[in-house]
Amino acid sequence: MSHRIRSVVAWALSILLGLAFIATAIMKLMAVPMQVQLFAALGYPTWFMYFTGVCELLGAILIVIPRYAVVGAIIICCVMVGAIASLVLHGLLSMVPPTIVFLALAIAIGYLRDWKLPLRD
Predict the structure, then answer these.
(1) pLDDT tens digit string along 5-38?
(2) Cα torsion at 40, 72, 16, 48 (round to 10°)?
(3) Domain-by-domain residue ranges, the chain?
(4) How many CA atoms lie within 13 A of 20 on its CB side?
(5) Sign (positive/negative) of CA torsion 58, 60, 65, 69?
(6) Given CA atoms 58, 74, 21, 60 in this order, what sign does their dihedral have?
(7) What are the DSSP calls for 61-88, one per residue?
(8) Which of 106, 20, 96 is nearest to 70 (CA)?
């Protein structure tokens, strides 16, 4: 894949995933009833919903800044792995496929950005 195509794909995926995670983060931070019910059904306290929302928002912001995109991708991957585990453990299997898609997109962005962390040369 040429550098130009790789860059365009990385940008497109970053913007798409960033917007999706801004939306989900806002829903958590505004305590939308659906989110409150989901976290309660999973057995998590309300503060954990807010923590997850902050992590999602941070990941969404960082993923669209090329220098920090890999950090954002790592944050999103961590949130999605936790979400997948929670959903599977509680039998909410219908919610797993979109979560896997978000995880795959975050991994793809990390790959397209060469997993280069901002502190590395």
Answers:
(1) 999 999 999 999 999 999 999 999 999 999 999 9
(2) 10
(3) 3-112
(4) 16
(5) positive
(6) positive
(7) HHHTSGGGHHHHHHHHHHHHHHHHHHHH
(8) 106
